[in-house]
Amino acid sequence: MTSKDVEATSEAQTGGAAAVDSVTVSDVRAAMDAAYPPALAESWDKVGLVCGDPKDPVEKIALALECTDEVADQAIADGAQMLVVHHPLLLRGVNSVAADTPKGRILHKLIRAGVALFAAHTNADSARPGVNDQLATILGVHPGAPLAPQPAPGLDTWTVKVPREHVDAVAEAMFEAGAGTIGAYDKCAFRLDGQGQFRPLGSAKPFIGTVGEVEKVEEARLEMVAPRAARSAVIEALKDAHPYEEPAFDIVSNEATGLDPEKAVGIGRVGELDTPMPFKDFVARVAERLPTTEWGVRGAGDPDRIIRKVAVASGAGDSFLDIVGKLGVDAFVTSDLRHHPVDETLRAADFCIVDTAHWASEFPWCYQAAIMLREKLGVPTHVIEIRTDPWTVAAS
What we know:
By secondary structure, the chain is an alpha/beta fold. The protein folds into three domains: 3-124 and 363-383, 3-Layer(aba) Sandwich (Udp-n-acetylmuramoylalanyl-d-glutamate--2,6- Diaminopimelate Ligase, Chain: A, domain 1), CATH 3.40.1390.30; 131-149 and 265-358, 3-Layer(aba) Sandwich (Udp-n-acetylmuramoylalanyl-d-glutamate--2,6- Diaminopimelate Ligase, Chain: A, domain 1), CATH 3.40.1390; 155-254, Alpha-Beta Plaits (2-Layer Sandwich), CATH 3.30.70. The protein has helices at 3-14, 25-35, 69-77, 102-113, 122-126, 131-138, 167-176, 231-241, 279-289, 321-324, 339-348, 358-362, 365-377; strands spanning 48-51, 61-64, 82-85, 116-119, 148-149, 155-163, 190-198, 215-227, 249-254, 266-267, 269-278, 298-300, 306-316, 331-335, 352-356, 381-383. The strands form four sheets. Strands 1-4-3-2-16 form a five-stranded mixed sheet, sandwiched between helices. Strands 11-13-14-15-12 form a five-stranded mixed sheet. A four-stranded antiparallel sheet has the order 7-8-6-9. α11 (339-348) links the parallel β14 (331-335) and β15 (352-356). 40% of the residues are buried. Belongs to the GTP cyclohydrolase I type 2/NIF3 family. One of its GO terms (molecular function) is metal ion binding.
C-alpha cells in the first residue's frame, strides 16, 4: 500500500477535510491511545506525546517510522500540525535538548513550526491490530497468537450521574474518548433515570441550584466500560462535556479473562502461510512485499524446505529465537539478527530464519495508523515515505 492508496481510501470515507469538525492534539492522542494502549508498552519504553500543546488544532497528520531531520522538514513542508511516529525520539535519557544537539535541533524545529510529535512504539507492536499484524498480513501469514502474550488490559466500568437533558452529550463525549466498545459493538451504555440531590457550599458556583440550599435534580445514571489505558482521556472528555462544576462519577476496575489466544495482545504473531512454498520462494516474497532497503533480505536454512507455518516479530527479534523453536514453525521473520545467535539456533532447532532491515519490517504500520486516524477523526493523513533505514550502501 502506498500513500496514494491511503489518500484515496480516506477521501472516499471522509469526503475530504472541508466538513471535518475541529480536532486537537489531545484528540489525536486519545485516538492513538485507544488503538495502541500505552499500558501495552514495555517497561523500558517511552511512548506518548513528545512535544506539542494538547489544545492546539490539527488539520493534517503526518506519519513516519521515526523523526529524523529530513522527516521533520517534510512534515513541516507538508503543512502537518502533528507527526506520529513509531520510534520515540527521546527513548534514552538526555540532559539537554538545546538546539545545537541532534535531538534538540529536531524538537526546536517542530515546536517553532507548531508541529506536535507523538510516538507509539512497543504498545503498537503488541496491540491488535498493530505493527506485527500488519507485517504478517503483508507477507500472507495469518496473524494468530503472539510470540510473547501479555495479560489483556482490564476494563474500567464507569458510572456517571448526569442531568437528564445532558446525558446524550456526556455519553457521546465518553464514546469519542474510547469508552463504550464491547467486542464488535460500540456506543454501548446503560441508563437509569432517578433523582439526585446536593447542596452548594459557600465557594461553589453551581450550574443548577442556589448556594446553601438543597437542590433536587432529575438525573440519569450512565454506565459504560472503557479500556483502562483510556482512563485519563475519558475523564477529560467527561469533565469537558458535563455541565456540573463537580461531576459525580465512579470507576471500578475489572480484570479481563478467557481471551481467545488469537485475540491476545503481545509482540510477534504466529500463523499459517496462505500458500505453502519452498523457503527460497518465501524469502523472495518477503523481499518483494516489504519496502526496499540496501540491507535487503537474507535467509538461513534449507532453500527447498516447504514453508507452511510462520512466526514474525517486527524489529529486532533475536530474543525470540528460543521461543520460536518450541512452536513448530517452518520459518521465522524478524530483523537485526547477529551471526552467532542464528548459527546456534540452526544447530539446535528445526526452522528457517529470514532477516530483514528493521525499518522495512515496521514501516508498513504507518499506513495502518494513517487509515485508523483518518477514519476515527476525519483529518487528512499523509505517510512520509522517506527511507530512514540508516544503511545506505551495500556491496557483494
